[in-house]
Specification:
The chain has one domain. By secondary structure, it is mainly α. It contains nine helices and no strands.
């Protein structure tokens, strides 16, 4: 099973977009799956269901950080490389999907009870989110 398929499968098992993306790539980058699931657990629904930056996107940012960031403050070159790759990811994801914001990607504001109900009624989480996870994982495979 490819990483893209693993990420979508993880989401379909009931995990959040952010969890699906980070946990799929984390073990190859030195972070165990359990910790990855915990760390990324607050980022679903556009940051704790606030409809902001898509969880698949924040999960991808974390993956890029794991791969390219440094644990030493003086290693500013790593910071610039990480920022450059996050921007590249961001531009490509936005180009493919029109936005990186959850509420824009879903076409409703899930931070409100009405918007959340609309997303559930229209089954947006099962019809839209897997494609966003797929795009994020595909882009990550190119970047990594």
């Amino acid at each position: 099973m490819s990483k893209v398929e693993k990420a979508v499968s993880c989401f379909e098992q009931g995990f959040l977009c952010s969890q699906a993306v980070l946990s799929t790539f984390s073990t190859d980058l030195g972070l165990d799956k359990e910790t990855a699931l915990k760390v990324s657990g607050a980022f679903g629904g556009g940051m704790a269901r606030m409809g902001e930056v898509c969880g698949a996107v924040t999960g991808a940012y974390m993956v890029i950080g794991l791969k390219y960031s440094s644990t030493r403050a003086e290693d500013s070159g790593f910071r610039e490389k990480t920022y450059q790759l996050v921007k590249l990811f961001n531009d490509d994801f936005s180009s493919r999907n029109g936005s990186i914001k959850c509420k824009e990607l879903l076409g409703c504001d899930i931070s409100t009870s009405e918007g959340l109900q609309r997303a559930r009624d229209q089954k947006l989480f099962s019809s839209v989110c897997p494609n966003l996870i797929r795009d994020a994982a595909n882009l990550l495979e190119k970047i990594l």
